[in-house]
Automatic annotation (TrEMBL):
<feature type="domain" description="Beta/gamma crystallin 'Greek key'">
    <location>
        <begin position="49"/>
        <end position="91"/>
    </location>
</feature>
<feature type="domain" description="Beta/gamma crystallin 'Greek key'">
    <location>
        <begin position="10"/>
        <end position="48"/>
    </location>
</feature>
<dbReference type="InterPro" id="IPR001064">
    <property type="entry name" value="Beta/gamma_crystallin"/>
</dbReference>
<keyword id="KW-0273">Eye lens protein</keyword>
<dbReference type="InterPro" id="IPR011024">
    <property type="entry name" value="G_crystallin-like"/>
</dbReference>
<dbReference type="GO" id="GO:0007601">
    <property type="term" value="P:visual perception"/>
</dbReference>
<keyword id="KW-0677">Repeat</keyword>
<feature type="domain" description="Beta/gamma crystallin 'Greek key'">
    <location>
        <begin position="138"/>
        <end position="180"/>
    </location>
</feature>
<comment type="similarity">
    <text>Belongs to the beta/gamma-crystallin family.</text>
</comment>
<dbReference type="Pfam" id="PF00030">
    <property type="entry name" value="Crystall"/>
</dbReference>
<protein>
    <recommendedName>
        <fullName>Beta/gamma crystallin 'Greek key' domain-containing protein</fullName>
    </recommendedName>
</protein>
<comment type="function">
    <text>Crystallins are the dominant structural components of the vertebrate eye lens.</text>
</comment>
<dbReference type="GO" id="GO:0005212">
    <property type="term" value="F:structural constituent of eye lens"/>
</dbReference>
<dbReference type="GO" id="GO:0002088">
    <property type="term" value="P:lens development in camera-type eye"/>
</dbReference>
<dbReference type="InterPro" id="IPR050252">
    <property type="entry name" value="Beta/Gamma-Crystallin"/>
</dbReference>
Length: 183
C-alpha cells in the first residue's frame, strides 16, 4: 500500500446557518458542489481528519485549511466573503515529505528541494517568489506571505507548472508548510 493510500477517513459536518443551526450535510470525502445538498454552509464541525474548504464550486476560489474542531461562523472566523461551496478531504500521509519549488513558471529560475516547513522563502533560499513546484511526497500548504500567513493553496503530489492556471492569478507564495498527521 502506498504512503498516500494509508488514509484515515475524515468527517466534516456542514450547517446552513451560523452556530451549527439549520440543515446539515455530513461529508467524508471530496465534494465539488455542495449546492445539491445545501443552499449555503456557514458553520461546520470537523470530527476527524483535515479538509480544505473553498468559497467556489469545483475546488476554486479562496481556500481554507480546517482541522479537527468547531467553526461556528466560517465567514467571520476565516474572512470568507461567501459561504463554503466545495470541500476536499486531505489524505493522511505517513512517510517523507518532498517538494521542489521554482522561482519562475514552468519550472524555471532558481530551484530548491524542500523536506521541511519553510517560513520564509526569501530568507532561506534568497528567492523573490515561487511560481511553480513539483510535489513529490506528502501534502503541503503554500502561503502568500512569510510566517504561514495570508491566502493559502493546498498542494498534493503532482506537477504545478503555473499557479495562474489554478485560479491563483498574481499570487506569489512566500512560505510552505507540510500537512502532517497531527491534524
Amino acid at each position: 500500500m502506498s504512503n498516500t493510500g494509508m488514509n484515515m477517513r475524515g468527517k466534516i459536518t456542514f450547517y446552513e446557518e451560523k452556530n451549527f443551526q439549520g440543515r446539515s450535510y455530513e461529508c467524508m470525502n471530496d465534494c465539488s458542489d455542495m449546492s445539491s445538498y445545501q443552499s449555503r454552509s456557514q458553520s461546520c464541525r470537523v470530527e476527524s481528519g483535515c479538509f480544505m474548504v473553498y468559497d467556489r464550486n469545483n475546488y476554486m476560489g479562496n481556500q481554507y485549511f480546517m482541522r479537527r474542531g468547531e467553526y461556528s461562523d466560517c465567514m467571520s472566523m476565516m474572512g470568507m466573503r461567501d459561504c463554503i461551496k466545495s470541500c476536499r478531504m486531505i489524505p493522511m500521509h505517513r512517510g517523507q515529505y518532498r517538494m521542489k519549488i521554482y522561482e519562475k513558471e514552468n519550472f524555471g529560475g532558481q530551484s530548491h528541494e524542500m523536506m521541511e516547513d519553510c517560513d520564509n522563502v526569501m530568507d532561506r533560499y534568497r528567492m523573490n517568489e515561487c511560481q511553480s513546484c513539483n510535489v513529490m511526497d506528502g501534502h503541503w500548504l503554500m502561503y502568500e506571505q512569510p510566517q504561514f500567513r495570508g491566502k493559502m493553496m493546498y498542494m498534493r503530489p503532482g506537477e504545478y507548472r503555473n499557479f495562474r492556471d489554478m485560479g491563483m492569478s498574481g499570487q506569489r507564495f512566500m512560505s510552505m508548510r507540510r500537512i502532517t498527521d497531527s491534524c
